[in-house]
Amino acid sequence: QVQLVESGGGLVQSGGSLRLSCAASRSIPSFYTMLWHRQGPGNERELVASITSRGGTTYIDSAKGRFTISRDNAKNMVYLQMTSLKPEDAAVYYCNAVNPFGGGEYWGQGTQVTVSS
Predict the structure, then answer these.
(1) Is 75 helix (H, G, I), strand (E, B) or coil?
(2) What is the rounded average pLDDT of the residues 93-112?
(3) How do residues 79-97 score in pLDDT, each as one tens digit?
(4) How many CB atoms lie within 10 A of CB 48?
(5) Residue 109 half-sphere exposure toward CB, CA atoms < 13 A
(6) How many DSSP H helices and E strands does the chain contain?
(7) Buried/exposed 53-83: b ≥16 CB within 10 Å, e otherwise
(8) 91 contact partners, CB below 8 Å, separation of at least 6
(9) What is the mean pLDDT of the segment spanning 27-52?
């Protein structure tokens, strides 16, 4: 069983930056799509960004131009660089690995991001 562990969350002022990291306990096949989701207070969980095995990325509209997702397959790591943070970005951020061919999915426990205005 693969475990995903997020880190890098914390308290930051509006306009600040954070870099979230997601470490896998063992190697995840490189063809897995890696994703970051978030869930703010009273909100449903939403997909923030994704990256395919070929490096193709997608972002939620509110994150475009501010967030960058990246992955290092050799290190079993996924990152989410967040800049120009806004109070509405405050949420628990979750790392997720998905087999695009079906049959496998893993989630981390989440890391809290708090943005003060």
Answers:
(1) helix
(2) 94
(3) 999 999 999 999 999 999 9
(4) 23
(5) 4
(6) 0, 11
(7) eeeeeebeeebeeebbbebebeebebbbebe
(8) 38, 39, 40, 41, 43, 112, 113
(9) 95
Dihedral sign for Cα atoms in the order 77, 82, 87, 89: negative
Whether 32 shows a pLDDT value over 90: the answer reads yes
Are the C-beta atoms of residues 37 and 48 closer than 8 Å to each other? yes
Q: What is the mean pLDDT of the chain?
A: 95
User: What pLDDT, on the 0 to 100 scale, is given for residue 68?
Assistant: 98
Q: Which two tokens stand for residue 48?
A: 């923030």
Q: State the burial class of residue 26 (Cβ atoms within 10 Å of its Cβ: 0-12, 13-18, 19+).
A: exposed
Determine the Cα–Cα distance for residues 96 and 108; give it in Å rounded to an integer. Answer: 6
Specify the pLDDT at position 27: 85
| 17 neighbors 85 (Cβ within 8 angstroms) | yes
Single-letter amino acid code for the residue at 19? R
